[in-house]
Amino acid sequence: KQRVLTGITTTGTPHLGNYVGAIRPAIEASRSSEFESFFFLADYHALIKCHDPAQVHQSTKEIAATWLALGLDTDITTFYRQSDIREIPELMWMLNCVCSKGLMNRAHAYKAAVDANLEEGEDADKAVTMGLFNYPVLMAADILMFGAHKVPVGKDQIQHIEMARDMGQRFNHIFCSKKNPLMTLPEHVVGDNVAVLQGLDGRKMSKSYGNTIPLFLSEKQLQKHINKIKTNLLEPGEAKDPDTSTVFQIWQAFASEAQTAEMRQQFADGIGWGDAKKQLFALINEEIGEAREKYNDLMSRPQDIEEELQKGAEKARQLSVPMMEKVREAVGIAGLK
Ligand code: TYM
């Protein structure tokens, strides 16, 4: 069976971008008998950008409750918390030792931090932690540990999957025979109509831009947030361009093809922004309304969430422990014989 794996960093409240770009396609894929799926809460990754323990804790709870509320079946998938798998940081070390620094210099997240520093006339590496620099190596360990074939992610993560491939390849080349490679080389999977969902201000929806629409807001708050989506000044009756509109882009991510065609026509006919936003609210609310109730219920029972995570960790470690034994042996640090 093909293995599918993906993770979400536990620093914020899940938003429509995470849902459309990662959670929804992952849960859909998990229902197919073609795949064996692994979904996890990337809480070690959270520590790279968040040093507020209460926030990491709360976010872990919210993200776990989100996946469960959306109908993730933990009997057929492996759903776990990254930090419960003690073998992951160990594998990360092995990969650190085969990964060239030059490759990491090219990572987008690191380069963005350096560019921002230089622009402000600061030292290039100011406030860059080893955590940020090593981010793609930790991610490679997540992926290679479980032999993932496919990694569904948003566009922003493609580079990291390629880097994981690179590190896996290098490990195989150095430590394994051609016939028996230990590392499975992963491929990224990006849904094409939803690759990067836009946020309130038209930029990519992202925790770091503060422009998100959280997934499980109350109905009232959801409508309020949708009303804040930036639009141009065209009045009702004036034709609007769907292809530059965030309202339309989000519509497309939730609508059927027929509904999208219909909205396109309404834009051409000069639908008013208020009306379009009301329709968008109804569309989203219909898709997530039921899950919202389950989510609120789960959030009041954290011990039940924890139980699910423990079950997942046990399943995951049935694979990670033997995998790590093989890796230790391959590099020459297993017990003496
Ligand atoms: P993170 O937590 O930033 O985002 C989780 C997933 O959501 C996708 N995403 C989006 N997709 C579409 N539109 C958006 N506006 C949007 N915002 C976020 C992201 O592409 C991602 O797929 N490093 C990863 C987490 C991670 C991981 C892994 C993923 C750690 N280890 C191993 C896959 C495999 C991250 O920070 O994602």
TrEMBL record:
One Pfam family, short name: tRNA-synt_1b
Gene3D superfamilies attached to this UniProt entry: HUPs (3.40.50.620), Tyrosyl-Transfer RNA Synthetase (1.10.240.10)
Locus of motif 'KMSKS' region: 204-208
Main localisation: cytoplasm
Binding site for L-tryptophan: D142
Listed EC numbers: 6.1.1.2
GO molecular function, one term: tryptophan-tRNA ligase activity
Record: residues binding ATP: T9, T10, T11, G17, N18, G154, K155, D156, L197, K204, M205, S206, K207, S208
Transmembrane segments: none
Places the protein is found: Cytoplasm
Motif 'HIGH' region: where in chain: 10-18
Catalytically driven reaction(s): tRNA(Trp) + L-tryptophan + ATP = L-tryptophyl-tRNA(Trp) + AMP + diphosphate + H(+)
Entry keywords, A to Z: Aminoacyl-tRNA synthetase, ATP-binding, Cytoplasm, Ligase, Nucleotide-binding, Protein biosynthesis
Record-stated family: Belongs to the class-I aminoacyl-tRNA synthetase family.
Its biological purpose: Catalyzes the attachment of tryptophan to tRNA(Trp).
Family matches, as NCBIfam families: trpS (TIGR00233)
Subunit structure and binding partners: Homodimer.
Protein name: Tryptophan--tRNA ligase
Organism, as annotated: Bacterioplanoides pacificum
Chain's gene name: trpS
